[in-house]
Design goal:
By secondary structure, the protein is an alpha+beta fold. About 20% of the residues lie in helices and about 20% in strands. It has helices at about 20-25, 40-45, 85-105, 145, 195-205, 250-260, 285-290, 295-300, 335-340, 380-385, 385-395, 425, and strands spanning about 5-10, 15, 70-80, 135-145, 150, 150-155, 185-190, 210-220, 220-225, 275-285, 325, 330, 350-355, 355-360, 370-380, 400-410. The protein starts with 6 loop residues before the first strand and ends with a helix. The chain binds ligand L6N33NVT and fe (ii) ion.
């Protein structure tokens, strides 16, 4: 809860005095390392039950991956201007502190938005005052360019670049805009309230002033996946259910096989417990799509538009039968989206999709700039994304209605324990 008073009610009913908590964090506020920032206050908070509107920050994995997909997203990629390793670490420590506060529904810093000096800019920008934590999650990862740029290693990270953190190749039909692709650091904020997600990115960008700049950012307004069996399947802007056959939080074996990087699987021990995040901003030519008949649309996807059931029959969660004959070849066309990307066509490879619908105004020709901000978390994009995207670009009839406009791959660092900062495993390995 963002409180306008200094008192906030803990879930167990004990009153946390925010002024005491903030003063325990020291005069340097959010800019200091966590070690100096009142661990005991956070330790006691963590041992309390987390309210329904909060997602725990600390853990083996970062939040925002298997967290039940929220409906609102603001993602930003940053390029680091800081020259020294210490400055970069300080930024990550500052961010860690601020993220932990915001995920608890607290304003950032020691004096928040309204409790500081009348003669200084407030530490927190204030637009989330009075709003609940709204299940905010903030997920942080590193792009390849954090490790090396223009042929030079950066921040003393020689030998730390994971083999799997490749530059994604060009795919047929890509029209990638470099200015909204890649970046040194990715920060994804998801929440139930758009203002809470935007507040998180804005305040992290502000804390980064002088050390890192926003390279690009994207707002998403509606989830296009489900990440728990309890969630309903949402719809994408083609009007189809999206996320039916996704990996969900309850699928522990699939998560270990396809999402979480395993110790024995990586050349970089610091990535164990992390994941790789693929981002593709995919513009959808919705005006053209809207002129396709229902039958054409269903043949392009391979599923019924209403129920989401495969064209081979059954209901939404019935497994598709790609061998069932139709009047003219298989009833699920071989060039339909699900026939091309299904795990059966890719040695059983799966991914955890966690994308969002977006609209960014119109393009001046009367067409909406709208689409899918595709996000997938995988153990290795070389095996879990590139071949599937290649197959899609080459064989998927739906791609005629799509244009890939941005692309990025990021190493999502493992989760942190209290007292640690995001990315510490990398800098201390
Ligand atoms: C390279 C990976 C994928 C991209 C890029 C992608 C883009 C994309 N997808 C849809 C719509 C749907 N996708 C669906 C399923 C689905 N998509 C992928 C992969 C990519 N999609 C996978 C692996 C799957 C699961 C396939 C399966 O196991 O059957 C569906 C069906 C419903 C579902 O299972 O989620 C739809 C609809 C769009 C519109 C799009 C680009 C804009
Ligand atoms: Fe898809």
């Amino acid at each position: 809860m963002h409180e306008e008073s200094a008192e906030s009610e803990s879930p167990k009913g004990t009153t946390l005095n925010r002024r005491l908590l903030l003063s325990a964090m020291g005069a340097g506020g959010a800019g200091l390392a966590l070690g100096a920032l009142g661990h005991s206050a956070y330790a006691s908070q963590k041992s309390q039950q987390v309210p329904d509107d909060q997602v725990p920050f600390y853990g083996e994995h970062q939040s925002g991956i298997i967290t039940e997909a929220q409906d609102r997203m603001h993602t930003a990629a940053f390029d680091v201007q800081a020259q020294s390793r210490d400055e970069l670490i300080e930024l990550l420590q500052t961010w860690t502190q601020a993220i932990a506060q915001m995920m608890q529904g607290q304003p950032i810093g020691t004096s928040g938005a309204v409790d500081g000096s009348y003669d200084a800019p407030p530490e927190d920008t204030g637009e989330a005052l009075g709003l609940p934590a709204s299940r905010l999650t903030v997920t942080v990862g590193f792009g390849r360019t954090l490790f090396e740029k223009d042929g030079k290693t950066r921040f003393g990270l020689d030998g730390k670049l994971p083999e799997a953190l490749i530059e994604l190749p060009h795919f047929r039909s890509d029209m990638i805009e470099e200015a909204r692709s890649n970046g040194d650091i990715i920060v994804q904020a998801c929440a139930d309230d758009p203002q809470v997600a935007v507040h998180a990115i804005r305040n992290l960008a502000r804390l980064a002033f002088g050390k890192a700049n926003v390279r690009w950012s994207q707002i998403g307004f509606g989830r296009t996946s489900k990440t728990s069996s309890a969630q309903s399947t949402p719809r994408n802007l083609f009007g189809f259910k999206d996320g039916t056959d996704n990996i969900v939080a309850e699928h522990t074996d699939d998560l270990n096989a396809h999402v979480w990087v395993q110790k024995e699987q990586t050349d970089q021990a610091w990535m164990a417990g992390g994941s790789y995040m693929v981002i593709r901003r995919i513009r959808m030519h919705i005006e053209t799509w809207d002129r396709a008949t229902l039958g054409e649309q269903e043949n392009l996807v391979g599923r019924l538009k209403g129920s989401g059931a495969p064209l081979s029959g059954g209901e939404e969660f019935t497994a598709p039968d790609f061998n069932m004959a139709g009047s003219n070849g298989p009833i699920i066309p071989v060039d339909s989206h699900i026939a091309v990307v299904h795990p059966d066509a890719h040695k059983g490879i799966r991914m955890l999709r966690r994308g969002f619908n977006y609209t960014d105004g119109s393009d001046g020709l009367g067409r909406l700039d709208a689409g899918l901000f595709f996000i997938a978390f995988v153990t290795d994009a070389r095996t879990h994304f590139v071949p599937i995207q290649q197959a899609m670009s080459a064989n998927d009839a739906m791609t005629e209605y799509l244009r890939n406009t941005s692309s990025g791959l990021y190493a999502i660092v493992p989760g942190v324990r209290e007292g640690q900062y995001l990315g510490q495993q990398l800098f201390e390995s």
